[in-house]
Write a structure and sequence with these properties.
There is one protein chain. This protein is an alpha/beta fold. The chain has three domains: about 5-145, 3-Layer(aba) Sandwich (Rossmann fold), CATH 3.40.50.980; about 170-330, Rossmann fold (3-Layer(aba) Sandwich); about 335-365, no CATH class. It is about 35% helix and about 20% strand. β6 and β7 form a beta hairpin.
Length: about 375
């Protein structure tokens, strides 16, 4: 994992050892136990996977929150999730402190990540959350994969306040393996632009299930280099693609539009880019064709939701043009049903116009 702006990097071994050390520190300092919730209130950082995996190693549940939340919005998620501590960055401390105070989280349980530390020393940097005991004193917390939660992500849903989506270890691992079957197989013979493996640019927000699973966890599992942008900026994204020889990206449709229309695209060498994968909202044929006509880079599409951890459908690269506009095929070991707005199953061969009758895809099971 590499920070696109500072060049700061973690190898796979660094990530593993730092995550375990953080998990041991939670147990040693705060008696962290299975089911305790660690909230994240931070933009993208290469430190995010460490605190995420460390908390899970200690048996905890991770609940990421949008770093643009107000005090009231963050307070709601902290209270609703039952968070015991918060991870943030220095520029976001003010809101994190106010929200923590409102829900009764002690200020000494606000943890910082990133390069900046708190000179007042009221808030620990994650690197100081360490075990002081001997090596074998703390072991990974045993979990029941199909019952114990790994993540509590919040989805806006359709009505009312955001709702926590409970995702077990089994949910997340299953989806990574399902997606790997579809996505991983297309990369295996190639070895990346320089023969050293595939390189993904991480522009999706890590607090969202799309970025959390498809960007962070899939990169760790598949061995992809992940170059991280704190937040999306077209100029910085183009610089990173050129400098790090990025081979693919997971993005939403507005970013697809930028690759097709943004004037700065022509100033950079994007020849390493092999494919763009779009999700989170419907992608039009016009946007797909716009990128292909300009860059000769295929854009494929997928579909999912927080409740499915998240991917349920995905196109293969070689089918991007054959089924342009489609979200692809159902992932292995899933079942789905197409229903109309009244919840009635649509008959075989019946035409459903999504925009007119709001046909829904429901009943997804793993």
């Amino acid at each position: 994992m590499t920070c696109s702006e500072t060049g700061r990097t973690y190898s796979w071994a660094d990530l593993r050892s730092a995550s375990i050390e953080f998990g041991k520190g939670l147990r040693a300092l705060w008696k962290w136990k299975k089911g305790d919730v660690l909230a994240l209130y931070t933009p993208n950082s290469i430190d995010t996977p460490i605190v995420t995996l460390g908390a899970i190693w200690a048996g905890g549940i991770v609940s990421p929150a949008n770093p643009l939340y107000t005090v009231e919005e963050l307070s709601f998620q902290l209270k609703d999730s039952g968070a015991k501590a918060i991870v943030t960055q220095k520029p976001y401390l003010k809101i994190a402190v106010e929200a923590a105070h409102k829900v009764g989280i002690p200020e000494n349980r606000i943890i910082l990540i990133g390069s900046s530390q708190d000179i007042s020393r009221r808030h620990r940097h994650f690197t100081s959350i360490q075990s002081t005991g001997y090596t074998g004193q703390y072991a990974k917390t045993p979990i029941r994969p199909k019952e114990d939660l790994a993540f509590l992500v919040y989805s806006s849903g359709t009505t009312g306040l955001p709702k926590g989506v409970c995702l077990t270890h089994h949910n997340i691992v299953a989806n990574i393996l399902q997606a790997e079957y579809v996505e991983g197989s297309q990369w295996a013979p190639h070895g990346g632009y320089d023969g050293k493996g595939e390189k993904q640019l991480g522009v999706l927000p890590f607090f969202h299930i799309y970025g959390l699973t498809c960007v962070v966890l899939s990169s760790v599992y598949s061995g992809w280099q992940l170059v991280v942008l704190e937040r999306f900026d077209m100029e910085k994204a183009l610089q990173a693609i050129q400098n790090y020889r990025i081979t693919f990206m997971y993005i939403p449709p507005p970013v697809v539009l930028a690759f097709g229309k943004h004037p700065s695209v022509d100033k950079y060498d994007l020849s390493s880019l092999k494919v763009l994968h779009s999700g989170a909202a419907p992608l039009t044929k016009e946007l797909t064709e716009g990128v292909w006509n300009r860059l000769k880079v295929p854009v494929k599409q997928g579909y999912g939701l927080s409740e499915t951890s998240p991917v349920s459908h995905c196109q293969r690269v070689y089918e991007w043009a054959k089924f342009m506009g489609s979200v692809g095929k159902l992932l292995p070991n899933m079942e789905a049903m197409i229903v109309d707005e009244n919840g009635k199953e649509v008959s075989d061969g019946e035409v459903c116009l999504y925009c007119s009758n709001k046909s829904l895809l429901v009943g997804l099971t793993v």
